[in-house]
Specification:
Elements lengths: L4 H4 L9 H6 L2 H22 L1 H7 L3 H32 L5 H7 L14 H6 L2 H30 L7 H13 L4
Helix pairs in contact: 3-5, 3-8, 5-8
Length: 178
């Protein structure tokens, strides 16, 4: 059986948006699980062992601990908000367009730390581990957010498919393929 180009190429079909396909994938479910587990682990640490460890720090290290734990908590809440918003899209609770509107409330900004290397090294090891895990997860989510935003911009009806435009010009110039 021979397949003709017109049977394969459909010019009037909207492209699949990355965000829509990603939030319904197993990869997103794994990312969601990882993010929520990190939130739980961090909360348990800060309320338990972390609180005890912070009592044994010097005054300066204790201030750095308080600052970094607040920064960590804020970052994790941003991550959790983003993940929950994406899950709502995946489960059909809200549309991708509604999620785009809601994203203005979820700030996934990168926050720089004024903590020096010496101050960082004085922090408890577990806090440093959690900070590293959160930073890496945050970077992955920022990357995904950029991909979703770019795919969304390309998939908007105002953006013309350049291949379809060229095929249309060829068809008008030479007639339909037979």
């Amino acid at each position: 059986m021979c397949v003709n180009e017109p049977d394969v190429i459909q010019l009037d079909v909207d492209p699949v948006r990355f965000g829509q396909s990603f939030v319904g994938s197993d990869a997103f479910k794994a990312l969601f699980q990882e993010g929520m587990e990190l939130v739980e682990e961090t909360a348990a640490y800060l309320d338990g062992a972390g609180r005890e460890e912070s009592r044994h720090l010097s005054r300066q290290a204790s201030l750095v601990y308080a600052s970094e734990s607040m920064r960590l908590t804020t970052r994790l809440m941003q991550i959790a908000s983003w993940l929950l918003l994406q899950r709502a899209v995946a489960e059909g609770e809200i549309s991708a367009d509604q999620a785009q509107t809601e994203k203005s409330r979820v700030r996934l900004n990168a926050s720089d730390s004024a903590t020096t290397i010496a101050e960082y090294e004085a922090l408890p090891e577990r806090l440093r581990e959690l900070m590293g895990l959160a930073t890496r997860l945050h970077a992955r989510i920022l990357h995904l957010e950029r991909l979703i935003a770019e795919a969304g911009a390309e998939g908007r009806p105002s953006a013309q498919n350049p291949v379809a435009a060229q095929l249309g010009l060829l068809q008008r110039a030479f007639g339909p393929a037979e």
